[in-house]
Amino acid sequence: DFMQASWDIEEVQAKGIQHLASFVKDKSAFPCLLKCTEVVTRAMKTHMDSLELHVEGCTLLLEILSQALEQGVMMALDECVASCLLHTVRKHSENEEFLSSLCTLLMMVSASEVAAENLRKVGIIPDLLSILRRFLHNDKICFSCCAVLWSLAVSENNGDQAVLESAVPVTSAILQEHLQDGVVAESACSALWALSLQGCVTDSDCEPTAALLLDALRMNPERAVLVKNGCLALASLVRLSETAALAILLDSKGSGIELIKDEYHLHFDEPGVAEALCLLMNEMVQYDEVMLDMRSQKMEKLLSEIKLQFPFS
């Protein structure tokens, strides 16, 4: 009430946010803090020139959302909050340190389907891509933004085809830049899977994208989620174009089929990985030339192994 009575006084908003932040450690205050998100974001939007207020507001929202996710509470923040976060991103588009926190906040917000849809509606994707181009070297920003892109791309009500298509080269650049960083590579593979699932990868990009995904699998063989999402992304690419299937067979760094076999044997007890590999192989055998090559490389043997390992799946 104190904050709402004096929107225009920056000091009142700052003191209010600081006081609310003092309740974060008190578990019994959590239900009340959940109701404060709109007040905090409105204070941030009203005082767009105050970096200090934005930093404190963002920190408080991160605390509230972290607790919400820990307790399994999904916060479906409305379009007004999404709009405020977009304005904040634009205001601080060159402040790398603050953007790291802000992008983490966006990632948490986008975990809710409703909130992700609201972020999409207010048009945040071009701003995310702009941030990624500028801070390609920043692993924290790249990880968070790829997670947001994944949430926005898998939305069923997607009307941003052209915008999403422009996300493919940026996401590929992130994967190329952070191939050895398993956490970021995993997030980028997930984003590429969502983008390829929406048919956003052009025919000319299918081959280089497939080669890049194979590189990610080679560099991070122990990461089951990356292997699963990388294979799902490859399956989507193969569905779009035969050139992706041929790229897997004829990869200059070694046979993609041998890589698939190695990944399965490394994760033979992971049903998600096995399912993704089967989906990829199923897409590949739709092309006669590819199927003949797979047969010559004894893929039936691997399929039989998978069938024995998961007889009831």
Automatic annotation (TrEMBL):
Its EC number is 2.7.11.1. This is Serine/threonine kinase-like domain-containing protein STKLD1. The lineage of its organism: Eukaryota, Metazoa, Chordata, Craniata, Vertebrata. The keyword ATP-binding applies. It comes from Struthidea cinerea. It catalyses: L-seryl-[protein] + ATP = O-phospho-L-seryl-[protein] + ADP + H(+); L-threonyl-[protein] + ATP = O-phospho-L-threonyl-[protein] + ADP + H(+). Keywords: ATP-binding, Kinase, Nucleotide-binding, Serine/threonine-protein kinase, Transferase. One of its GO terms (molecular function) is ATP binding. InterPro entries: ARM-like, ARM-type_fold. The keyword tRNA-binding does not apply. SUPFAM superfamilies: ARM repeat.
